[in-house]
Design goal:
16% strand, Lysozyme-like, five-stranded mixed beta sheet, alpha/beta
């Protein structure tokens, strides 16, 4: 197992109703067909609108969720868009994120938790995840 130092939290930037399968398919679709062209979904886990946590990339495989930060992090995506009140995370998703962080800390120790755009300066400026995740977890 690789060494993890942090969990990086993302939002999908789309509707909260996006499914895990839609996101995985988009990530794996060839770039020529409008996708990302990845071998798998970029994230290790995805939390959907119903509060379910879906396994993406295995934790021992480096993610593709945050350029320059993937080596020592786990990426978790929560569907929705926190910059739009109608698509912001619901209570099920927030509870699932809290449970996810607790479980990951039991497995890997005192992991830092940060939002995708929290680092200063970020590699690529982004509003993701559209909220201060430290206020949730």
């Amino acid at each position: 197992m690789r060494t993890l130092r942090r969990i990086i939290v993302h939002h999908s930037g789309g509707p909260r109703s996006q499914s895990f399968e839609e996101i995985r398919n988009y990530h794996m679709r060839p770039k020529a067909d409008g996708g990302r062209g990845f071998a798998d979904i970029a994230y290790h886990h995805v939390i959907t609108e119903d509060g379910e946590t879906h396994a993406g990339r295995p934790l021992d495989v480096i993610g593709a969720h945050d350029l320059g930060e993937n080596d020592e992090s786990a990426g978790v995506l929560v569907t929705g868009d926190n910059t739009k009140p109608a698509e912001a995370w619901n209570w099920r998703q927030k509870a699932a994120l809290i449970d996810y962080v607790r479980a990951m800390r039991l497995l890997f120790g005192p992991l830092e938790v940060e939002g995708h755009g929290d680092r200063e300066p970020p590699e690529t400026p982004t509003a993701c995840p559209g909220c201060d995740v430290r206020g949730i977890v």
